[in-house]
Design brief:
With 339 residues, the chain is mainly α. It has one domain (2-338). It is built from 16 helices and no strands. 48% of the residues are buried.
Length: 339
């Protein structure tokens, strides 16, 4: 069994690494460079599903990469976030992130529930949309307490929610890149828009980077300000879900874990800001982050279960789409008005 898992892991590494490298190469070509290497890697991962026997053999490794490598990539991206720059961004950016996360999760959850989506899937999809995609779903999921017989359904909800934010994140990345000329925004405004509205940090990086370095840096700061909301959001959602959704169930009071990768991200940010590593070293660490994130995006694409989405996840996908449209519309107004 261990040997099978080892083979699955190395096969998954090979497949996702190919997608990530191809995404990098294709992302440097004319026209495709506006899409971005990370989004291309995710699309390539989706196309890999055409070879189902290979994907099935690599399934456990793909699951590991989509979860752990995404966290590792975010940790390494911490080297790109200069805390002094974040401080210069001021209270306005942090406050905006808190408002985005709170309003998006609240609106997304209520729209989903009105459309008949079950509470567990509704809160996971809303959290992924509001905070930071798959990483948020994996961070929030441990806070959702279910009975032993519901564990398999919980895992299915996790996959559904990850698939939904992966698909919508890709779609809205392409939409925002496409409508950019029509918005007449400054690079800073477009960076705030992408960082404030897109689901995955990889999507924000891809879309923000399509408009130059100023948009990219602003997108990263804005998006990572939302990522910083993950720990308090996880605690609040865990308490709320236990008291409101699990009301009447004797599930007990369990310790609510804080996602570990946040500590690594903060440490990397501190090191990148205050330790004189040199620009070359920092640049290579960031390139490594993009490579690993590309692998994680490809793994997410390989994990999308289109049949489950079409059947059980249809309303969840529709409600998350409505939420994403509302978020994009509000962020266009906020970006042009306040930045």
């Amino acid at each position: 069994m261990t040997t099978l898992k080892t083979h699955s892991f190395y096969l998954a590494v090979l497949l996702t690494l190919i997608c990530s490298i191809l995404g990098t190469l294709l992302g440097g070509l004319p026209y495709l460079n506006v899409i971005g290497a990370l989004v291309i890697a995710l699309i390539l991962g989706m196309l890999m599903q055409l070879y189902r026997p290979t994907i099935i053999r690599a399934r456990s490794g793909i699951s590991f990469i989509s979860n752990k490598f995404l966290r590792l990539g975010i940790i390494l991206l911490g080297f790109k976030l200069n805390l002094i720059d974040l401080a210069h961004a001021g209270v306005k950016t942090i406050l905006l992130a808190a408002i985005i996360v709170t309003c998006t999760i609240t609106i997304g959850y209520n729209i989903a529930r009105k459309m008949g989506v079950e509470p567990q899937l509704a809160i996971l999809a809303a959290s992924g949309t509001g905070i930071c995609g798959a990483a948020a779903i994996m961070g929030i999921s441990p806070q959702i307490q279910v009975s032993a017989g519901q564990e398999e359904k919980k895992r299915e909800d996790e996959v559904l929610a990850v698939a939904i934010v992966a698909i919508l994140g890709t779609v809205f990345t392409l939409i925002e890149i496409g409508i950019r000329p029509l918005l007449h925004m400054t690079p800073t405004q477009f960076g705030v828009l992408t960082g404030g509205s897109l689901h995955e940090i990889a999507h924000a990086v891809a879309a923000g980077g399509s408009n130059g370095p100023i948009s990219l840096d602003t997108a990263i700061i804005t998006k990572l300000s939302r990522v910083l909301m993950l720990a308090p959001a996880a605690l609040i959602i865990g308490i709320w879900y236990q008291k409101k959704v699990n009301r009447g169930q004797n599930s007990g009071h369990q310790k609510l874990p804080v996602p570990w990768f946040m500590l690594g991200f903060i440490i990397a940010s501190v090191i990148g800001t205050f330790v004189p590593l040199g620009t070359t070293t920092l640049a290579w660490l960031v390139k490594l982050a993009y490579l690993i994130l590309g692998m994680a995006m490809a793994a997410l694409g390989m994990s999308v279960n289109f049949n489950v989405i079409l059947h059980r996840g249809r309303n969840a996908l529709i409600s998350a789409t409505f939420t994403s449209v509302i978020l994009l519309t509000c962020m266009i107004i906020v970006s042009k008005s306040l930045f």
